[in-house]
Amino acid sequence: MNRFESFPIVKTFRENLTKIENDGPVSVICGVSGGVDSMVLLYMLHRLDVNCTVAHCNYQLRGEESDKDMGLVEEMSAIWGFDCITARFNPEGAQESNTQLWARNIRYTMFHDLKREMDAGYIMTAHHREDQIETILQKIMRGAGPGAWSGMSILDGDLFRPLLEIPKDELTAFAKAQHVPYRNDRTNETSVYARNLIRNEISPQLDRLIPGWKKNILQIQEKAEQFRLMTDILLTQIESEPMTLHRENFLALPEDLWPPLIHRFIEKNVTDAKITTGELGQTDDLTNLQTGGFLQFGDDLRMVRDRNRFCLIRADSAQLKPVTVSQEDLPFISREYSVQIHLCGWKGKVDDEYLQIDADQLKWPVTVRPWRNGDRIQPLGMDGHKQVADLLTDKKISSVQKKEAILIESFDGIICAVIFPHVTPRQQIGVISEQYKCTAATNRILKIDTDV
């Protein structure tokens, strides 16, 4: 065994590498900053002959020092036989936001773009044990619940962190023993950012006062996993169908369990959901929520009561935008709206499989859009007008599905037709307005179908 192979971190790295090489070698995008962690990672990729493209972001926050970091990464990538892609970014973009968040967003956007362009299997980063500890501590101090205490994973989708279990001092010792060049970012020595404060001031004090505290923090991950398993078991008892909770079963559980269960329920169903502690605090209101009422989570998620169910749906902000349709645009076929509209001659009889409107009575262009509160229509066969909301209720459209109904509006603002989100028990796909019904004088019709 040569000296390189004798290092424990090499064994750990090899074992973790098998997590992504089950079906043979893969290609990776490796984020390399020039610091000791990422340079050690790049060196091991070189020694183990992993197919890698190096990615480096120059944020130009430290002037000449930033350029030297980039120069080192480019030079060692060339020496070790890797393609290296570097990019400079204007730091002015960070002036009105958190600089670290700005840099992180840029970094991962670049990594994912490269992964797609290079058809790579994974994005590899050099996160280590201290990064994991700092992540868990920050989550606890910011009020995150037990479900979030698990920190980072070695393999998380297309993100691969093979050094996550390795202490920083072992990486530094390895770099010195193997003569791996690296650069120190002096801004890490200041405690301006929360992560630096933990690293530079809090961590040394805890090392002195509470020996073994890092091991205890890492064990919190096990407790977080146990908590997640328990919430998942409870969810199986109250989930009635996808994106839906059985109301009575949910409310029968102790109220203290409602926030973590709702959080886990949303987390399982919506991968990009961002939920605050304050939003979870409103779960007490689920008891008195009436049918059609909802609780808002984030910008576009709602927990809606539909009789004896709580349904998770996207809010109105995510609805489709209105579309203007002129006669020249016909036929109009939209998969987004699940509707097709054709202009054709009138054959003198009504076909129940479609909606049919007297096209020559319309004021053009017409608009296809989601319905809104306050919209009114004069349904076929009625003398007066009716709220669209009431019409949908009469047709047994559930409160959750109501928002998916759409309508066609004439240029003069009169609603010509309401199209249901599904076929009703009486095989109706929608309702047309009495004002635009076909008569003996009709020549041309708009034929509206929902089979797209």
What does the overall shape look like?
Answer: elongated
Distance between the termini: 65 Å
| Fraction of residues in H or I helices | 25-40%
Number of strands: 22
Radius of gyration: 30 Å
CATH topology-level fold name of the largest domain:
Rossmann fold
Query: What is the overall pLDDT average?
Result: 88
Structural class by helix and strand composition: alpha+beta
For the largest sheet, list the strands in their spatial order.
3-2-1-4-6-5
What is the strand content? 15-25%
Tally of helical runs: 14
Largest sheet: 6 strands, mixed
Domain count: the total is: 3
CATH superfamily of the largest domain: HUPs
Q: Extract low-pLDDT stretches.
A: none
CATH class of the largest domain: Alpha Beta
CATH architecture of the largest domain: 3-Layer(aba) Sandwich
